[in-house]
Specification:
Rossmann fold; globular; 9 helices; five-stranded parallel β-sheet; alpha/beta
Length: 193
């Protein structure tokens, strides 16, 4: 009979144990918050693959639930209605072992953020405004929940305070590739475990 391989002395074993411990935690979700254009959806898909988690984009959930686009909701009922719908969808999430990409306005709901924090770690993808403006060229049709007449710069300042307030991990990712952002999140998660 072949003896079982003892991996405790294998290189990287300690790191593997830390990663496994972070998955065993009751807070198994990774919740991405940040501005439109910060890369939450794109990074989220890559991160889900790298960490063997499922992926959910709450903007898509809203659109599926409502059977209409975010912009249609905004045009018909305004930004406060979209935020209320978003809060309802977020409070209804009961997930484990997921990467959750939230909409940019999720941080307005303290109740939703508290709910998401019970099952996950909140990660803020912090991107500077110049980079965001290069990435977001459809500001007026993208379905961004903002007050009428509010500029992107005003929205950036307003939301930035909320993101920092709710974040447990902040990744300054303006000059990072999507893969580097994912690696930074994984490293930060390991350090927390």
């Amino acid at each position: 009979m072949t003896p079982a391989l003892d991996t405790r002395s294998a290189p990287g074993h300690h790191e593997y144990d830390k990663r496994r411990a972070s998955v065993a935690s009751p807070r198994t979700n990774i919740v991405l918050i940040g501005m439109p254009g910060s890369g939450k959806s794109t990074v989220g898909v890559i991160l889900a693959k790298r960490t063997s988690r499922d992926f959910v984009d709450t903007d898509v959930l809203i659109q599926t639930t409502e059977r209409r686009s975010l912009q249609t909701i905004l045009d018909a009922e305004g930004h406060m209605r979209l935020r209320a719908i978003e809060e309802r969808v977020l409070l209804g999430l009961d997930l484990a072992n997921h990467v959750i990409a939230t909409g940019g306005s999720a941080a307005y709901s303290a109740a939703a953020m508290a709910h998401l924090k019970t099952s996950g770690v909140i990660v803020f993808l912090d991107v500077d405004i110049e980079t965001l403006l290069r990435r977001v060229d459809d500001f007026d049709t993208r379905g961004i929940a903002k007050a009428p007449g509010q500029t992107f710069a005003e929205l950036f300042e307003e939301r930035g305070r909320l993101y920092r307030e709710h974040a447990e991990i902040t990744v300054p990712c303006s000059r990072m590739t999507q893969e580097e952002v994912c690696a930074a999140i994984v490293d930060a998660m390991v350090e927390r475990s």
